[in-house]
């Protein structure tokens, strides 16, 4: 039996979009190299409805230990300050992490502590890694191009006092070296544009620059331009490890949906889903319903209820009760589409994308959804809502020609919701384009092949993961 030589401590941030890929990354490492073990310290927030059941369902194995840390006390004012909330949470967790890691390293026969892997929003934990005199790597859960954007804007800020929040609601075009084309300020991430997120942006930029390496959930074959820039750039020569796509693709088992998909023609169904945090207001729900009916497309629509506005930020949507669903949709919609569509709550997304009946994905362009769609060769129609989804949509449509556009710059602010209404016509056009654009379909299929190959011997991600593991062991 191989002796465990080194152990890593993982600190994912609490959102499902971050937890899933971090945990899958941990599994990838221990499956690749039996000399390593990993302890994942799971932090929780009072805001999340999906996350607790998800984290409680992860079990420890011999070389993968999952420890659910206690939920700390967070005040209402912390909850309502989006820019500092996550930082407050991470700081509150520092003593717990310190205690757990002390116990780990002091326990008998414990392997050497090889380093910390901290989520991009947990970089204040790098200080704790320093206390144990071990390297700290950041796990960046979005694209290499977004990583390049953050590093570039942070450098401009440090060096020239450049303030990106002044660009909000302007048409300014920026040259960002990790993108081929000039980038409109309209598609910059909310955490770059919004004044109240500034503290979080600064902590992120500073944290990335302090890291001993940055692991990116992407792959060189997809983002060659951005990866090239990151390896050249003035980013303190931090090693970059694009090791993706890291996905959780085998766990869903929704027999009802699969049975329905089995009965649909090959490549005929449009799937609509807006991620773990995404929801739109009721007027917008009705426009989507009209577009679906007018397009005549078969569909599966993951429709969830927005959290109340203004009460909290970053709260997750919840499920509609059956009567609420009938009320929010146009009169008779469910009856009229009973043969051609399904409206569901939380979706078995990977299972749907993997199914041969699925033709296209109307997506918020969260990075995990983007990677899943590429992996399964399903083209996207872009409809970003939050965070860095607008820049992901821009990249997919304008840089990679791997998606069609419904919108690139739609934006929902957590506190005020969305003040734009996307009309049914525009949505319907996007759905038709998604079904008909053969060039986009072909590019996605080709990249799907690449996304599988990159993880195997000889692929770029396979070799970057090897490099990362070597740096821990040696
Ligand atoms: O009904 C649903 C909704 C989501 N998912 C899964 O949940 C994950 C969602 O991840 P992602 O697509 O990245 O969206 P978010 O949950 O919105 O993720 C957050 O984290 C991502 C990674 O940093 C960012 O790219 C996003 O902008 C940010 O909102 C994916 O694996 C989906 O398959 C389901 O299985 N069913």
TrEMBL record:
Keywords (A to Z) from UniProt: Glycosyltransferase, Transferase
Its Gene Ontology molecular function terms?
UDP-glucosyltransferase activity
- Is Nuclease one of the keywords UniProt gives this record? no
The EC class name is transferase
The record's listing under CDD domains reads: GT1_Gtf-like
> What superkingdom does the record give?
Eukaryota
**What EC number(s) would the UniProt record show?**
2.4.1.-
Q: Which InterPro entries match?
A: UDP-glycosyltransf_plant, UDP_glucos_trans, UDP_glycos_trans_CS
Pfam name, any one: UDPGT
Q: Spell out the PROSITE patterns in the cross-references.
A: UDPGT
Q: Which SUPFAM superfamilies does this entry report, sorted A to Z?
A: UDP-Glycosyltransferase/glycogen phosphorylase (SSF53756)
The UniProt entry's sequence similarity note says: Belongs to the UDP-glycosyltransferase family.
Protein name per the record: Glycosyltransferase
Source lineage: Eukaryota, Viridiplantae, Streptophyta, Embryophyta, Tracheophyta
